Structure formats: structure tokens, C-alpha cells
Amino acid sequence: MGFDRRFTLVLAAWIAALFVALVGFIWSLETDGLAAARILAGLIVGAMGAGLWRHIDRTNRTIARFIEALGHGDFAARFDGHGGAGFAALGDAFNGAMRGLQAERDRSARELRYLEALVDDVPVALLTVDAAHGVAPANKAARRLFNRHDGVRPEDFAVYGATLAARLGGEGEAHQEVLILRMPGGPQRAIVRSASLERLGLHIRAVTVEPVQGALDTIEMAAQTDLVRVLTHEILNSLTPVTSLADTAATLLDAEPPDVPDARIAVTTLARRAEGLRHFIDSYRAVSHAPVLRRRRFAVAPFADELAKLFAAEWPAVPLTLEAQHDLALDADPDLLAQVLINLLRNAAQAALRGTSDAWVRLGFTNVGGHLWIEVEDSGAGVPANLRRDIFLPFFTTRAEGTGVGLNLARQVVVAHGGSIDIVDGDAGGALFRIIL
């Protein structure tokens, strides 16, 4: 990448002119009586030297102006290589690079505008907290939600709740929790999440506040409707024979003479049905109390082996396939989790025996993307799709001898661990219960 042709020719002409002027100046110095010629020759030499210097310095000044424009972020500037300036190829390369930088800046500006609009229109309130600027709303949702305070200090947000103000101030900082906000329409529960960021060397916390009272109310009403539906069904099923037996006993005792033996049988049956109703109510009380976890870290392999031994002792006729990696570990309550899996294995064994003659059950522990998947699969007929939503409801059961409590308690334990439980079709067509922790 050298000088362009025009620059070289002009440079050669200036050098030649300067050389001729120097020769003339030297000749005038050596010849007597040419004082005026000496002065004129000296001026010509100076002019040629100045012209040569200006021609050489022009490219330097062009490059300097170009780099100065670049330093000020003026990507629209172009390297002027015309009019005799040198480094034409370098100028073309500079101009190409500037066009690329300008296109990249335009693309980045468009992407930044999109991200700003996206953050501003996200329906979850976003707050930023830093030492220099305090607490500031970062989008429309935050400005609408937090519009009843003045100031940017965390304590200024105490009007929405002391706990929220404490979290914004960093006291007892939590990654995610549910807080109560004091809003004009009354207290509202909200999910508050926080994360740490670095911006230009400044530590910033991003805090999202998502009011969920409406969604929770809807879910609660749906759950209450389902629970009332199941409870009404079960209680009526229990009260119908009780009422009938009471009428029968009263009729037998009112007879002349009273039929005491048959009345005694009716009353005995009535007592037994009343005991069944009491057991049902006790089961409801058990479901209504959330489980208390005693978490600890333990290895999965010995835990799975113990479950397999318990299963083999209770169901010797049903083969159990155990799949568990030896390097897996779990942070959970081993007793509650074991009770959940024992119930699932028992249900699986019963379903397998009611299904085909080739009954089997599989218990698997797998690490999938950093989550522990626990699967209980059977060779039974599976669970119909229209019942999969209801089987985790309290007291819902499809078996005459079932109480409908086990799967609901299992779900409570899994949710208390921060996990999920679901039912899908197994590869062999049976039911597959999957717990993800």
C-alpha cells in the first residue's frame, strides 16, 4: 500500500523544480553583479521548498483530520485522497472500514432501541438499584406500580411495604420471594426477584416485582371449586347409607313388638359407616397441613436400593427394574421423599397386576440438564387423559378401596421441595409418574 501515481508525479515535479532553483541560486552566488538575481533565486528556492513541504504534509493533515473525526465518533467522515493527497489505497481501506463501522453502529442503535422498547413494555415492573442513582423504575410497569412516593432511596419505597424497602436496601436480600405490597386497592401479594449486574464498573441490582394476587385468587377459586366438588361427592356418598340405616333402625324400633336384633344390626352398620366418615374427615385434616421439610444432602444410589428392597418385600410377584446412577446426590427430605415414592410404587404395582399378566414396575433416577428426574413407570393400562388433572386432587380416587389422599400428599411434598410431579404415558402404554427436582 504505497503512494498513488498522481502523488508520485507531483512529488517528483516539486523535487525537480527545487533542484533547478537550487542550481540557479548557487550559480547566482558564484557570478558577480547578480545581486538581484540572487535574491530572486533565493525566493524561488524558498517557494519550491515550501511547495514540496506542503505537498508532503497534505497527506499527514488529511490522515490527522480523519483520525480526529473518528475519535469524535463521526463515522460519516471519509478519507479525502483526491487533489494530490497520497495513500489512496490506504484511504480506500479507511473509507471501507468507516462504512462498516457506521453500518454496525446503525445496526447496534436499532437493536438498542428494540431492547429499550422491549424492556419498557414488559408487563413486569423492573427497578434498578445502585449506589450512585438509588432506586429507579426502568420501565412503564414500574412507573405505573410505584407512583405514590418521592425520592430514590430504598426507604422512600416503604409506602409500598417495609419488607420491599428492606429488600431494595439489600437487607436480607433474596433471589426470589413472595411479599405483601400495600397498594391503593388493598394488600397484594407479589413475586420479587433480584439479580446482580455490572455496568461500567458499577454494581447494579435489577429487581422485578410481579403482582400475582389476581392470578392467585383465580387459582384459589378454581382449587376451592374442585375441592368442594370432590368433598361434596365423597360426603354425600358416606351420608346416604348413614341416613338410610338410621331410618331403618328407627322403623325397626318403632315396630310392635320392636325388632331389636335387626335394629342392632342396622345400628352396628351405622356405627361402622360413621367411623368411615370420621376416617375420611381425619384424612382431610392430614391433607390440609403442609409438610415440614428436614432437608439434607444424601446419595441417590443407596436411597434407591433401600426403596427396591422395601418394594420387593411387599410385592414379591412384581419385578422392579431399578435405574440409578451411582454419582447422583440429592438435597431433600429423605423420609418424606421415600414416603412419596413408596406410595407411587404401591400404586404402580397395583396397576401392573390389574393390567397384563406380564406385570412389571420401573424406578429411575436420572440427571437431566442439572435437574433430577425420578420416574415410576408400570405395565398397567395407564391413566385416561381426562382424569390426569383430577388424580392429584384430595380424595379423588378411581379405586373402591382408595382414599384419594396419597397422590395429593405426594404433590404437596414435591412442591414443598420446589419441584413438580406429573403423569404421562410410558413407552409401554402404562402410567409414568415423573418428579423433577
TrEMBL record:
Catalytic activity: ATP + protein L-histidine = ADP + protein N-phospho-L-histidine
The Histidine kinase domain, residue ranges: 230-437
Transmembrane annotation, as ranges: 7-29, 35-53
Compartments, as annotated in UniProt: Membrane
Key words of the record: ATP-binding, Kinase, Membrane, Nucleotide-binding, Phosphoprotein, Transferase, Transmembrane, Transmembrane helix, Two-component regulatory system
Cross-referenced InterPro entries: HAMP_dom, HATPase_C_sf, HATPase_dom, His_kinase_dom, Sig_transdc_His_kin-like_C
A Pfam family hit: HATPase_c
Gene3D superfamilies the record matches: Histidine kinase-like ATPase, C-terminal domain
SMART domains: HATPase_c
Listed GO MF terms: ATP binding
Keyword GTP-binding (UniProt): no
EC class (word): transferase
SUPFAM superfamilies: ATPase domain of HSP90 chaperone/DNA topoisomerase II/histidine kinase
EC number, UniProt record: 2.7.13.3
Residue ranges annotated for the HAMP domain, each copy included: 54-106
Keyword Translocase: no
Domain of life per record: Bacteria
Entry protein name: histidine kinase
